[in-house]
Amino acid sequence: MALLFLLCVVGFLLDLPLLFRSYEHQELREKYGRERGDRIGEQLGLVSGYLYFGFWAGVWLAPQERFKLNIVPAGNMSMWAISIPLDHLLLGLAFLVPGAILGVAGVRAVSLRVAELHRPEQIVTTGVYSFVRHPQYLGGVLSHIGMTLILSALYSLAATPLVCLVNYLVAHKEETELLREFGEEYAEYRRRVPMFIPRLRGRN
To answer: CB-based burial of residue 10 (10 Å sphere; 0-12 exposed, 13-18 middle, 19+ buried)?
Structure first.
């Protein structure tokens, strides 16, 4: 039962070097020339990005043991041909809905092309990016928790700390490369806006 889950976790981790490489625009240009380097980076970004989220979705969907919260003693709903405890559904949606909103808002702010190819042409500081620097990764983690709860996926729940760590490492790599490309402009933005957790108090 755990084999497919383990394969998805391994694929999720093995994709990281490819994903990291897709962010290294300057190094790719130095090694292959500007035009070819950009083309290679775009291909790496497209492939590694879809592999990343494909394996990540497999972590939720792979056959695995189920858990129960038992917050609400009774009540189930049928969805996707499975029975979902009502408390799992409600709590899961509380994570999934804002996660999806953050992810979609992040993609819309930078454009689908930039999100797919990992090739920002400018620093976006408006909209959702004025509250957190990585709304797509934050949205992904929230959605992961939401899907894990809705599907009562025990192994996915156990993998949540790993998922959080991996997303932090990807975000950190992205920031390292953005600093190389945009210098003080991105450094100033990073000083003003938190990485993942929005500030509750007013911003100066």
So the answer is: exposed
